[in-house]
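Input (structure):
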């Protein structure tokens, strides 16, 4: 079954269960950007949204953190979508939605999610890897809990090497690009709305995996668009014509 189809089934099930509300949210996609090393991104250093780990000797884990308009809802092995059987995942640690404002997000900015896995070494061994299958960032209305914006990552499953062992060594960035940032800002979200997550990972053999949000500031393209270039050219030609006409008039008057 295709990844987009699998995601469609999952979202449909969540809507049917009332988790995602009844109105259709604005949707864009998270894009995998690679590994990053921000430093100091442990449980106490950033505002962690979700923390989970596989239970006992299990290797599969899934969790969801959402907002219902008044409080956080933390669910291990959420069903729907039913990625893992109940009891597979421990949601010990920090699990709560955060407001857009708490990330220093401002209208016009983009957003990204950093996945910080904790897997045993040595580097390069199979025990140092984890598979991320699904990740969905959701923006919930501050007072209603309605889904205003939903951004799934559709690139899974993806095998990821925990290149920096231990919680607090950053991880892997999934973010909105410029076009999808525009979708986010057009969705009517504000600084008091809440960021929640849904994630599913397999081949997990280490400690607690964590997720946190980060602001993505997109730099405007310094090259003028063609229409702007033509506009500037037109202004320049008009200026040249005015100057030439003034010189001709001065010459004819003998000045």
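Output (sequence):
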């Amino acid at each position: 079954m295709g990844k987009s189809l699998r995601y469609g089934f999952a979202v449909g099930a969540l809507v049917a269960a009332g988790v995602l509300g009844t109105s259709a949210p604005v949707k864009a996609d998270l894009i995998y950007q690679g590994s990053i090393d921000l430093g100091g991104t442990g449980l106490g250093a950033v505002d962690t949204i979700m923390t989970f780990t596989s239970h006992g000797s299990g290797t599969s884990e899934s969790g969801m953190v959402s907002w219902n308009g008044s409080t956080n809802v933390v669910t291990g092995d959420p069903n729907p979508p039913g990625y893992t059987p109940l009891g597979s995942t421990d949601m010990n640690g920090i699990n709560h939605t955060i407001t857009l404002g708490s990330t220093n997000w401002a209208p016009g900015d983009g957003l990204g999610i950093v996945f910080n896995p904790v897997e045993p070494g040595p580097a390069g061994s199979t025990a140092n890897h984890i598979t991320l299958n699904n990740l969905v960032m959701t923006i919930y209305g501050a007072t209603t809990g309605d889904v205003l914006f939903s951004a799934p990552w559709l690139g899974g499953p993806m095998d990821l090497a925990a290149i920096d062992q231990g919680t607090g060594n950053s991880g892997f960035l999934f973010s909105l690009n410029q076009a999808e940032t525009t979708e986010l800002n057009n969705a009517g979200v504000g600084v008091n709305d809440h960021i929640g997550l849904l994630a599913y990972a397999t081949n997990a053999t280490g400690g607690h995996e964590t997720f946190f949000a980060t602001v993505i500031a997109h730099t405007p393209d310094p090259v003028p668009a063609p229409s702007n270039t033509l506009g500037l050219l037109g202004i320049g030609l008009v200026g040249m014509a005015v100057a030439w006409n003034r010189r001709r008039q001065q010459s004819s008057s003998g000045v």
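Notes: Residues 229 and 240 are 17 Å apart (CA to CA). The first helix runs from residue 3 to 16.
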